TrEMBL record:
Parts forming coiled coils: none
GO terms, molecular function: 4 iron, 4 sulfur cluster binding; metal ion binding; molybdopterin cofactor binding; NADH dehydrogenase activity
Listed name of the protein: Assimilatory nitrate reductase (NADH) alpha subunit apoprotein
4Fe-4S Mo/W bis-MGD-type domain boundaries: 6-58
Keywords carried by this UniProt record: 4Fe-4S, Iron, Iron-sulfur, Metal-binding
InterPro entries membership: Asp_de-COase-like_dom_sf, MoPterin_dinucl-bd_dom, Mopterin_OxRdtase, Mopterin_OxRdtase_4Fe-4S_dom, Prok_molybdopt-oxidoreductase
A Pfam cross-reference name: Molydop_binding
Length: 724
């Protein structure tokens, strides 16, 4: 490696939405990573961040375009790959119409790439069918926040604000494993006994809360909504609500009051298993933190544990209602927030890769939004397609009569990470053309007809938007390997070959300037930002609109709700919600709740982290965490192979006995492919509002592979090929 320009580069971690600041320095032996001080990480990183440089020299890094010829992926040069691809895309469009080509994006893409991908779909392909993996991640929280607060900015306050809180209610988030440095902001509230965690497992985070004198509520999986209705009931019943706040800053409070009146704590206990005393204690501790009772501040935060559910939008709505009843939202030092997950999960949902959105968080069926964005793109508004299919429906439609015949995947590994992934494999196999852009041969890339190698974090310039809505700079620290291209270049080359109108710049700063113009006046307004401005000040919160020449630049908006909510009447809307329960419940044949989630060492489908030796060694395979009493009943010993099955398929993993999980529940992480890939059996039922799938809860049967005293069972047949 050329080290003549070994200048340390200030950038941010390639993985999650905390976007810990890191410095990359080229040395004669490779790249050295160190943590840098930044408000989200305060000089900390997790094991994934510290080992991230290993991503730069993974042995099977993609460096050449690949084309499937006679069943095999063979290396070709870029012109061959792009000419072939453009020809196939044009032919499919000519034969079956523009919606026959679909696009699947990712929340890890920079703002520039996400924006360009959305524009490419609408302008160069003319397809309505673009959606992304954020549908698996943030859609329910987004839908609820838009509905209740008028704006979806995951955390509408800087993370550091949590430091002053007296109580924090954390529902379905295991920060200790998913954003370890973020936990530092909760150290004081934990020490004061104010950390209240709701999780069917005694997760690392729940244990921290309980050991700090806080509370761990351990409900039946999928019953957070009645827990929240019960908490709100207790607050209202005991006269703890902030009535003046309700009268001046909200609408609809009476409807919510009526809707929770029948959720007596005793009834909540019956449905959720959370004891009355715990529920009442949690309600009182959170209420005591409210400024109306002289507290220093309280927060309600949600994670995927409650959102990845067929009632996720309503559950988040109930969490917001609880925060509103206590007067917490739109007040400095208190609030509601959803903890965004992917590196650019926030920016990724603002700039147009979502089926119903245009850049700047504009809605694609709003005529004014279409006119503005079409103006920036130099096309007629009528040429823009309408709403496309959301992710789960999109994947289910691939290769069906009248459905898309081609799919372009940018920044997602759906073969491993989509719900009911065996069915997804069948749909991918039914396509005429699967195109995957990636940095490594992911499980999805291996199924593709065309694979294009792209640059990764330390090899590119761009911007990311952190979980708090801070727009930050990703900077190039090392040259990309020979043969690898940036996605901006690939999209511009394809647009040119397809004869698309508009301009297709390839320089990230230039793409950002166009994005800023397209976002001007939208909910997520970036028009006052540029790479140059961000380079001067490191990070600014959106909305950050442009100002008339001569005026001082807009300072950004760390806390958007302080004066009013961005709703027509300026008030937060309280929306009554009801409990329906998960779509699938345990029965005699499938007696256990299966819940899924993450471990510290692996990121998502594991495509990146399974290639980092230290991380793979620390966490080599999937496992099923189950209670020793359940294990005893089923004849399962610690460490033996077990099979989990339901009507969608079967998974084979080792048992890990732990009293941290409920006796009616089994937990499996989703980071692994093959026989241990839990998404073979997760449910693809979706939330009716957000269309987000129910990853977190389904019903399963669990059996030891070799029952005590029996002969070994035959090897697991692969249920569905998925190979092409
Ligand atoms: N190590 C690591 N960190 C990551 C990621 C990663 O893959 N690995 N991914 C990033 C991304 S994209 C995201 S979205 C975030 C996700 O971050 P989290 O939301 O913290 O992650 P999960 O582990 O998916 O789920 C959190 C918890 O939900 C619990 N849970 C399951 N079912 C229920 C339920 O019915 N109710 C309640 N209350 N809880 C339930 C699980 O037991 C789990 O402890 O993490 C980000 N950070
Ligand atoms: N059972 C279960 N399933 C889940 C979840 C769960 O909790 N339980 N969580 C869901 C959630 S919250 C999420 S966010 C999804 C995520 O799941 P995926 O969408 O599969 O996410 P990743 O594994 O991060 O996949 C990203 C892919 O993009 C590649 N990549 C990285 N950077 C770039 C880039 O700049 N350009 C391109 N083209 N490629 C790039 C990586 O190598 C990797 O192959 O999983 C969901 N699936
Ligand atoms: S917490 Fe997230 S951003 Fe920070 S080092 Fe770990 S993976 Fe990277
Ligand atoms: Mo996510």
């Amino acid at each position: 490696m050329d080290v003549t320009e070994a200048v340390p580069t200030a950038t941010h971690c390639p993985y999650c939405a905390l976007q810990c600041a890191q410095t990359l320095t080229r040395t004669p032996t490779g790249v050295e990573v160190s943590a840098r001080d930044f408000p989200t990480n305060r000089g900390g990183m997790c094991q994934k961040g510290w080992t991230s440089a290993r991503l730069l020299d993974v042995p099977d890094r993609l460096t050449t375009p690949l084309l499937r010829v006679g069943g095999e992926l063979v290396e070709v040069d870029w012109d061959t790959a792009l000419d072939h691809l453009a020809g196939r895309l044009a032919a499919i469009r000519a034969e079956s119409g523009p919606d026959a080509v679909a696009v699947f994006g990712g929340g890890g893409l920079t703002n520039e790439k996400a924006y360009q991908l959305g524009k490419f779909a609408r302008v160069a392909l003319g397809t309505a069918n673009i959606d992304y993996n954020g549908r698996f991640c943030m859609s329910s929280a987004a839908a609820a926040a838009n509905r209740s607060l008028g704006l979806d900015r995951g955390l509408p306050f800087p993370l550091e604000d949590l430091r002053g809180a007296q109580a924090v209610l954390l529902l379905g988030s295991n920060l200790a494993e998913t954003m370890p440095p973020g936990l530092n902001h909760l150290a004081d509230v934990r020490a004061g006994g104010g950390l209240l965690v709701v999780d069917p497992r005694r997760s690392a985070t729940a244990a921290l809360a309980a050991d700090g004198g806080g509370l761990h509520l351990q409900p039946v999986p999928g019953t957070d909504l009645p827990v929240l209705l019960g908490l709100t009931h207790v607050v209202l019943r005991d006269g703890l609500a902030d009535e003046q706040y309700l009268a001046t800053r909200t609408s609809g409070a009476e409807d919510v009051r009526a809707s929770v009146s029948a959720w007596w704590p005793e009834r909540v206990e019956q449905v959720t298993g959370v004891p009355v005393a715990s529920l009442v204690r949690a309600a009182r501790r959170l209420a005591a933190a409210s400024p109306v009772h002289g507290g220093t501040g309280g927060y309600v935060l949600t994670g995927r544990g409650v959102e990845q559910s067929s009632q996720g939008t309503d559950t988040v709505t109930a969490a917001i209602n609880l925060a509103l009843v206590l007067g917490l939202c739109g007040r400095q030092g208190s609030g509601y927030g959803a903890i965004t997950g992917q590196g650019n999960g926030q920016g990724g949902r603002e700039h147009g890769q979502k089926a119903d959105q245009l850049p700047g968080y504009r809605m694609i069926d709003d005529p004014a939004a279409r006119a503005h964005v079409a103006g920036v793109w130099g096309v007629h508004p009528d040429s823009l397609p309408g709403r496309g299919l959301p992710a789960v429906a999109l994947l289910a439609s691939l290769g069906t009569p009248g459905g898309p015949r081609a799919l372009m995947v940018h920044g997602a590994n759906v073969r491993v990470s989509a719900p009911n992934a065996g069915d997804v494999a069948e749909r991918l196999a039914a396509l005429d053309l699967l195109v995957v852009c990636d940095i490594v041969p992911s499980e999805t890339a291996r199924l593709a007809d065309v694979v294009l190698p792209v640059t990764q974090w330390a090899e590119e310039e761009g911007t990311m938007t952190s979980l708090e809505g801070r727009v930050i700079r990703r900077r190039r620290a090392v040259p990309a390997p020979d043969g690898v291209r940036s996605e901006l270049w690939i999209l511009s080359e394809l647009a040119r070959r397809l004869g698309a109108p508009s301009r297709w710049p390839t320089a990230p700063a230039e793409v950002f300037d166009e994005l800023a113009r397209a976002s001007a006046g939208g909910r997520a307004d970036y028009s006052g930002l540029s790479h140059a401005r961000l380079d001067g000040g490191e990070a600014l919160f959106w909305p950050c609109p442009a100002v008339p020449a001569g005026s001082p630049a807009h300072p950004g908006t760390p806390r958007p709700f302080l004066d009013r909510f961005p709703t027509p009447d300026g008030r937060a809307r309280m929306v009554p919600v009801e409990h329906r329960g998960p779509q699938e419940r345990p029965d005699a044949g499938r007696p256990l709740h299966l819940v899924t989630g993450r471990v510290l060492q692996h990121y998502q489908s594991g495509a990146q982290t399974r290639r980092v030796p230290e991380l793979l060694a620390a966490s080599p395979e999937a496992f099923a965490e189950l209670h020793p009493l359940t294990a005893e009943r089923l004849g399962v010993a610690d460490g033996v192979w077990v099979r989990l099955s339901n009507r969608r398929g079967e998974v084979r993993v080792r048992a890990r006995l732990s009293a941290d999980v409920r006796t009616d529940t089994v937990f499996v992480p989703f980071h692994f492919p093959g026989a241990g890939s839990v998404n073979e059996i997760t449910n693809d039922a979706v939330d009716p509002v957000s269309q987000m799938p129910e990853f977190k809860v389904c019903a399963v049967d669990l059996r030891p592979e070799v029952p005590a005293g029996a002969a070994p069972a035959p090897a697991v047949p692969t249920r569905r090929g998925g190979g092409r």
